[in-house]
Amino acid sequence: MEKKKFRKIGILSSGGDAPGMSAVIKSVTCSAIARGVEVVGIIGGYAGLINEDIRPLSIMDVSGIIAQGGTYLKSARCNEFKYEEGMQKAIATCKKFDIDGIVAIGGDGTFRGATDLSIRGVPCIGIPGTIDNDITATDYTIGYDTAMNTIVRIGDQLRDTSESHARCCVMEVMGRDAGYIAIETGIALNAVGVALIETPFDKEALFEKIIKMRELGQRSFMVIVAEGLGTEFGEALTKEIEERTGVESRFVRPAHIVRGGTPTLRDRSLAGVMGDKAVDLLLNGVSDVVICSRKNQIVATDIKYALIVDRMFKNKLKDGDLDAFSAEELESMKALCEERRAYFNDMYDIMKTIGC
Predict the structure, then answer these.
(1) Enzyme catalytic residues
(2) What's this model's pTM, rounded to 2 decimal places?
(3) Structural domains in the chain?
(4) Which residue, 239, 310, 257, 151, is CA-closest to 302?
(5) Nearest-5° angle of CA 197, CA 312, CA 144?
(6) What is the pLDDT of residues 306-337, one digit of tens each?
């Protein structure tokens, strides 16, 4: 992108909310104003951009929002933005309000919108904000750590009552189609078993382990199930555990409780660093990228690369998806996917070894 003078940038959050999004908004606002650039908030994501719901942001507006859960700028789904007419309305809003560029916080749907605007002349940079951590190009997304800590608190409380009544608790955790939350919290909660999409699940081994541990005198058990396995999986497994092991079992689905709450130190810190990096890159002529955390480094990754490597890892590639990439880029994608698969395999092996 040709470097241009930025007078005003917009911030929006789109898709599912996540703790730490407000911290990003604070970081971007303060970073831009410190560089002499005005900031406006776009209320309700891309819908707000289409509907001209634009508000100026000052340092005082955002000074106290870093600890807020959810998103200060609100969020909404916007089917209209998926079509050219909707995109042109959004572009017209940018022109009307003199918005020279946009920082978009969210997941893959948000990034698709950002790249659509970028190729139509509105520079955009994406920041990954989702509790699911399901953006393959980054090691961590904003909101992921907070969500896991919330689940661990819930799990500890469930363990208390399970211990009192000698029960097994099966908890379904959010994560959409990814098992990051499930495997990490499974280990943290000392789960006797974890079921997720990324690795084969051996129910018979789980039943045998529960029976053996009960014979040794253990009273309570925790099993974690990823929501990506379907809404009926966890409930059916709960009934089967009780039938096969004789251990009274209960099913729990915390659901959207884990999307709220005060962001952790890690999410606040990541939000601050990513927000500042996004402003720095945008003002220096870089756009159509997503800010990623890779091996403890904050790096910019082409949005199209991020979207396609995500499809590759999730086995959702479509015809022609890989045509625009070089052989070197394709090898890089494959290596990243193998790294993610190795992570799940290694973590699952650890869980099977230490879980009880």
Answers:
(1) 132
(2) 0.95
(3) 8-143+263-316 (3.40.50.450), 145-259+342-354 (3.40.50.460)
(4) 310
(5) 55
(6) 999 999 999 999 999 999 999 999 999 999 99
